[in-house]
Amino acid sequence: MSATEVPLTITTKNVTATFKQNKELSSTVDEVLKAQGISWTVRTALKYTPMSLKVQLYTDDNGVEHLDIDQLLPAGIKSDEPRTFDFQFREKLSVVFGPVIARSKRVTIDEATQINGFLGQGWDEGCVKNGLFYAYARGDPSKPNGLEWESHQTFGFADVQIDEKQTERKYVVRLYFTAPGLEEGVEKRLVYDFVQEGI
């Protein structure tokens, strides 16, 4: 097993780990970031510098699941993405994306596919059994510096083709994104290598 492969002990029912983006296996998301108002300088840095994620799944005293994701971007920029799986809309002022309205829940593969076919593709047997993390977000143009865009994401684990002979289990994010400046919806896959358990 490769040091960058996610252990089978980590699933969508049990994940507290650190991951690092694999730029070679991930889609380019420049047009998405541009539509979200991200500056050329930051977008250029993101092209060449892998993002690190610290991911922690836990259940609160009321039995509601939470997925906290801390992102470390180039130039030391940090962005926290706390997700509460009760599918209630919440407003947030993101240091990266500005004013955002978002909600999250756990979904089955079939439910993800119904939202958008791309979101339900390619997941491993653990995700078939345990479900995926789903996050919906949109920009809030009613607020200062808010832009109009809409994002659907699924998070989970998948066997990703590394080369002609090898596949590795990775942490994967699938994104379906729309914005007025884009002629059609954009489908992107972000792939992350395993770094360590715990954060």
TrEMBL record:
Identify this protein by name.
Answer: Uncharacterized protein
Q: Per its UniProt entry, which superkingdom is the organism in?
A: Eukaryota
Q: Which PANTHER family match?
A: LIPOCALIN-LIKE DOMAIN-CONTAINING PROTEIN
